[in-house]
Amino acid sequence: MRATVPAAAGTAGEPAASGSRRLTDRVFRIRESGIIAVLVVFVAVTASIQPRFLSSGNIQFILVNTTVFALLALAETMVVVSRNVDLSIGSVLGLSAYVSAGLFGQVPGISIPVVFLTGLGIGLACGAANGLMVSIGRVPSLVVTLATLYIVRGIDILVVGGNEVIAQTLPDGFTQIPRAGLGGVPYLAIVIAAVIGAGAYYLRSFRSGRELYAIGSNPDAARLAGISVGRRVFTAFTVSGAIAGVAGVLWAAQYQTIDSTAGTGYELQVIAAVVVGGVAIFGGSGSAVGAAVGALLLQTISSALNVLGIPPLWIQAIAGLLLLLAITLDRAISVRLLTSLRVRSSGVGT
Amino acid sequence: MAPDVTARRWLSAAARWETGLAVLLLLIVVLGAAASPQFLTTSNLFNLLVTSGEVAIMALPMTLIIISGEIDLSVASILGMSSALLGYLWSIHWPMLAIFAVLVLLGAVAGLVNGLLVTRLGLPSLAVTIGTLALYRGIALMILGPKTISNFPAPYNTIGVIAVPHTDIPWSMAIFVVLAVISGVVLHATATGRSLYAMGASPEAALFSGIRVKRIKTILFVVSGVVCSLAGVLWTFRLATAVQNNGLGLELNVVAVVLLAGVSIFGGKGSIGGVVLAVLAFAGLANALLLTNFNQEATGIVFGAVLLISVFAPNAGALWARLGRLRKHQRPVRPARQ
Amino acid sequence: MTPAAAPVLSLRHAAKSFGAVQAVADGSLELSAGEVHALVGENGAGKSTLVKMLAGLHRPDAGELLVDGKPVALPSPAAAQAAGIAVIYQEPTLFPDLTVAENIFMGRQPLLPGRRIDRRLMRAQSAALFGRLGVPLDPGRICRGLSIADQQLAEIAKALSRDARVIVMDEPTAALSAAEVARLFEVVRTLRAAGAAVLFISHRLEEVFEICQRVTVMRDGRQVLSSELAGLTADDLVRAMVGRQMPERTAGERSEPGELVLRVERLTREGVFTGISLAVRAGEIVALAGLVGSGRTEVARAVFGIDRYDAGTVAVSGRQLRKASPSAAMAAGVGYVPADRRQQGLVMDMSVQQNVALASLAGLRRAGLVRSAAERAFAADWAQRLRLKYGRLTDPVSLLSGGNQQKVVLAKWLGRRPALLIVDEPTRGIDIATKAEVHQLLVQLAQQGVAILMISSELPEVLHIGDRILVMREGRLTAEYSHREASEEKIMAAATGQLAVQAP
Fold first, then answer.
1. A226 to chain B, closest Cα gap in Å
2. Across residues B201-221, what is the average pLDDT?
3. CATH of the domain at B111
4. Does any domain span residue A332?
5. What does C219-278 look like in DSSP terms, one character per residue?
């Protein structure tokens, strides 16, 4: 009998406190590592069917395509953990991509860092506008960023006015940014990984980072605890916007042809990656690393379906199905966690 | 009994949003008429109504869903899926009536999947319907691929451009009016409607009052699916084109209309009257911008701004006070750091 | 008063109005170091408003607040904390996704060089705080799923970590079991010994006499009594609170139970409760006693169809109920007044009238449409029968006092003329006068032939109106007593397991 339920029997025998610690820790590690495991299994299965999947060219392709996506996932994570959402990042990315890359054509010889700063500035401005309206206006972020999604895209369309940035106007040093690399691993991917790592570390180990989780976990309690909720939320949106601005410049370097539709509809894909990565859609839990891996997983899936010779027309449907599966799986894990905590809690009362 | 002053005041508070919307609508009409003599012509108004028919229709079930505390972001993908299937089945020579039957079923199944994932598995609808948004659009792509089907016969391909006999009302608007009346009665005058407000305002209290929360929500998603499928038919016939990306991104327009209508994104508040006014305001605005040669693609700026003004204007006083306080205490008091 | 005993905190002639409602007219309070000070009064007497002034949530319109003899203003919760005041609410507001240690140190985490959080030190300091309080709570555990008692302990640890000198406890015992109350009182004594001033708010006067040294009584927003507790009796306090003599209880004759209404057989939900068999007859009040967490509420939820169960049956009036369907239970004549009034009993945004009618809309329809005149008449009728105090039926129910809110929940279910009424903690957190009314109402209902299953953590209440008393412990029924043979000692023994396996 005991052998059939080793986990339950094992924890029941341990002293209550350490048993619970070990149990919750374990499940939490699963929440993080679960998505990594899914990624590994998925890669292994795909590679065993089609070894070409692990060619350096394909890996590079996946990584390059993931960079911008994962960067935006970091931005969205900061906002989502605080029980908000930023729907405007696709539009901000589009505006930043066009305006910054357009500088190469308008200002001959402009230096690449200035172009990046321009993108950053555009993103900062948009993010700060969102942040101000959400924190001082106390309007739900879904409403505010839905409005700015339209407004920023509209501004983009007016600025572009039927033109587009074409590859020929971009200097080689710029277009090589996503491509330069070491043995198939682009430098850019390494830099982005470091940025995401830093972001995750900030959210985990700095007061202001923890306060974002506190706000998302219980906004009223956060106010009672003396956390300046408005200021934290404002900062989260500003940083999110700034990251989207920089992501726009990288997008331009990668795709090179930019019209007024760049990044349209990207916001929902990014939110999907964040949710798949285990960030609770209503705030309070989840990590930036998880979200970035979520982005990598979604990108890997679409690439794998390609490599496996799945008809290209099926790919989006299958990706959608996998997305639903990932959400369901995450829910199943957190329900199990809650149940285990409740059983533990009722055991202590006696 | 003494006149119920507070009740009236409360009623007027509830009606204030609708009053504001009515003023906005009036403003749009006046400005539109001033900007262009064409604005108030019958043919222009007809055009104005036709082009916003599908969004208007989809906004109705969305209103009920948001009031009940959920959201459905897959509406435009269901529209696209329906349009794609319509095109495909017509291209392999199915009779139109059979196609309609299949499309109703398609919408119902699509909505049912949303509803079951939300109610039976307890997943947040925001996440679920982002997933089905991708899935349903993917299915549309599978059905039709890159093809474009446009050889629809006479009675159908004109439905988007002709009026209901003896009137100047386009078919899609007539359908909207009928659905709006039904939704209004259900929401404001039936026990089910009351239940929707209750479960949006307090899901647990609704459950403890014996309201069949799961069943009602599932039915709402199914209804939304069917209505969106119907909107897909209208869209296809109006543009006389079935293509997989029909209505791409329209979900956010629908949500924006519903929010402009004063429906709380957190559930429990809103009215169908507000939705009707918001639909007309959006339609009027789009049309006025069209006549003034504003860049058509960029009208989003104006929509977004109107949406922002609509959420900020009713709270302008409180907002001003908060700004004042913020200026006074540049730094909020914080416990000393260690 | 000698200058040596200068109060740590004194609030003088504070006033606060909300619109036309004067919540506090003349509130005064003096707390000294090393004392536990009781604040009592009926609901609506202004206690909560007073607490919110101390918490920095409400600004008084008039009056002054002195801390250590110096006037202070508390414009925000942060200012109150900085002044050394900590408030422990009845249901603490923690961050459910974060660990206990993070909850304690949020915003004040110990830092490593580079302003990074020192997690190890934070955890060690938390463990040390719990050591001082003498409670084994794991600092590394996330707060979701903690019992209310443990959440309060986390809040107290937070107050300790801030070196708070004034600790306000707003009805901390309302949701606690007897064992948890005993543990809390140990902690309060520890705090007092360490020189803290504790303001203790409770409706349970026996607790006031057990733990407090001084008392302040409020009535209608004014301080009506402030004195040493020694020499006072519970009756004195009640008289001061109510301003009149309490009516004697009119429990009425115990009628002979009628037909079997509820029959629960071997009901089991794995890990929650096991093998529950019980019966309730028409005209009978069956009290379900036991500690919080013993599975009483869970059994009620399963009977009413909120939760699923794994085995067993529930039958009402001879017909077996479908699992997990509140609407089926309601159709069979079951009503359920849940323990959490604000979350489960009422839709706080809706009006009094809409809440009363919420469970009865099916009967107020013509041709599928709800007739608002009928709804209004229905609500007015029940409001009058239960002597509900309200402004207008269209006012949001959130404007009513706790006791009147509970009456709305009762009206909601009585309006369905239930055969079986399940009431879960029917008088939790409501004032003494309304409490007596609720008791009287339950007895009357039983006399009219309604079967009543009452869950209660208050033993006097259980003994007072229960015809039969069932006791649960760790998910099982452990004892059954008739009204005559029951006593507090027997019930506590069965609830805590000291009864062992003796046959009753």
1. 7
2. 95
3. 1.10.3470
4. yes
5. ETTEEEEEEESTT--HHHHHHHHHSSPPPPP-----PPP-SEEEEEEEEEETTTEEEEEE
d(CA C25, CA C11): 13
Residue among A175, A193, A173, A187 nearest A60 (CA): A187
Superfamily of domain C260-350+401-496: P-loop containing nucleotide triphosphate hydrolases (3.40.50.300)
Query: For residue A317, what pLDDT is reported?
Result: 87
- Name chain A contacts of C117, Cβ cutoff 8 Å: 205-207, 210
Rounded to two decimals, the ipTM of the complex is 0.84
Question: What are the C-alpha distances in Å from C127 to residues C133, C135, C140?
Answer: 10, 9, 9
Does some domain include residue B209? yes
CATH number of A153's domain: 1.10.3470
pTM metric for this prediction: 0.84
Whether C114 has its CB under 8 Å from any CB of chain A: the answer is no
What is the tally of structural domains in chain A?
1
Burial of A208 from C-beta contacts in 10 A (0-12 / 13-18 / 19+):
middle
C344 DSSP assignment: I
Compute the mean pLDDT over every residue in chain B, rounded to the nearest whole number.
87
Q: Where in chain C is the domain with CATH 3.40.50.300?
A: 8-94+146-204+213-242, 260-350+401-496
Please compute, for residue C277, the number of CA atoms within 13 A of its CA located in the half-sphere on the CB side. 3
Q: Side by side, which strands form the sheet with C285-290?
A: C334-337, C420-424, C451-455, C285-290, C468-473, C476-482
**Rounded to 5°, angle at Cα C421 from C417 and C423:** 135
Q: Domain containing A135: what range?
A: 31-339
Name the pairing type of β-strands A181-182 and A185-186.
Answer: antiparallel
Domain C8-94+146-204+213-242, CATH 3.40.50.300 — does that match?
yes
Q: What is the mean pLDDT of residues C341-358?
A: 94
Average pLDDT, chain A: 85
Residue C271: how many CA atoms within 13 Å on its side-chain side? 12
Q: Which of C77, C107, C119 sits opposite A211 (nearest CB)?
A: C107
Looking at A102-111, B110-119, B212-221, C397-406, which range is the least confident one? C397-406
CA distance B84 to chain A (A): 13
Compare all CA atoms of chain B with the CA of A282 and give the residue at the minimum distance.
Answer: B124
- Residue A13 belongs to a domain: no
> Residue B162: inside a domain, yes or no?
yes
Mutation site, C358, C365, C395, C425, interface B, largest B CB count within 10 A: C358
Exposure pattern of A215-240 as b/e (b: 16+ CB <10 Å)? Answer: bbbbbebbbbbbbbbbebbbbbbbbb
Structure tokens at A299: 């990108």
Residue A9 counted as domain residue: no
In a domain, B319, yes or no: no
Range of the domain at B189: 38-307
Residue C91 banded pLDDT, cuts 50, 70, 90: confident
Q: Does A329 touch chain B (CB under 8 A)?
A: no
Query: Considering only CA atoms, which of B139, B168, B156, B134 is closest in space to residue B41?
Result: B168
**Structural domains counted in chain B:** 1
pLDDT tens-digit readout, C281-307:
999 999 999 877 788 999 999 999 999
Q: Which of B 268-297 lie inside 8 A of A, CB atoms?
A: 295, 297
For the stretch A206-265, pLDDT in tens is 999 999 999 999 998 898 888 889 999 999 999 999 999 999 999 999 999 999 989 988
For residue C37, give the nearest of C210, C224, C195, C215 by alpha carbon: C215
Best residue of C76, C95, C177, C294 to probe chain A, by most A CBs closer than 10 Å:
C95
Range in A10-19, A125-134, A203-212, B302-311 with the lowest mean pLDDT? A10-19
C395 and chain B in contact, CB less than 8 A: yes
> Is A347 domain-assigned?
no
B324 occurs within a structural domain: no
